[in-house]
Design goal:
Elements lengths: L2 E4 L1 H9 L3 H10 L4 E4 L1 H13 L5 H14 E3 L15 H10 L4 E3 L11 E2 L2 E4 L1 H7 L3
Parallel strand pairs: 1-2, 1-4, 2-3, 4-6
Antiparallel strand pairs: 5-6
Helix pairs in contact: 1-2, 1-3, 2-6, 3-4
């Protein structure tokens, strides 16, 4: 089964609108691929939901818990430094590598999508990932 790391921006997009990100999240919950994440990514999602999108802490906590039930969690150490500075995207890349993900699904056109491939992890947008899954 395909292993994929789903970036925080895809989870948030799925919560606030329909479209490809929503379909990717639905497939993650239906375990149509092996989901690779880290506690740091779940923490970032929780913070983003509360601070930027004004979801309640309770709702964000429930989302975090539900995602953790379907994910394989890995603990990045901060050893990868591809994006300049102490950018969070470095932890996302490291999580994908640690989890042996074949794909990193993101909407990040500034930092992640331009990389295209990193340590055998293909970095794709949600539409391309859905094509990989043939849905």
């Amino acid at each position: 089964m395909v292993r994929a790391c789903i970036d925080t921006n895809i989870w948030v997009s799925a919560l606030i609108s329909s479209g490809a990100p929503s379909k990717v999240v639905e497939l993650a919950f239906r375990r149509k691929f092996n989901l690779v994440l880290s506690p740091a990514m779940l923490d970032e999602l929780h913070r983003t939901m509360v601070s930027k999108f004004e979801f309640t802490r309770s709702f964000a906590g429930k989302v975090r818990f539900r995602i953790s039930q379907v994910a394989d969690l890995y603990n990045p150490t901060g050893s990868i430094r591809i994006v300049p500075g102490k950018h969070f995207d470095n932890l996302v890349l490291e999580t994908a590598v640690l989890g042996k993900a074949k794909y990193l699904v993101t909407g990040d056109r500034k930092h992640l999508l331009p990389i295209k491939v990193f340590h055998n992890v293909k970095i794709v947008d949600p539409v391309a990932f859905l094509e990989v899954l043939n849905v």
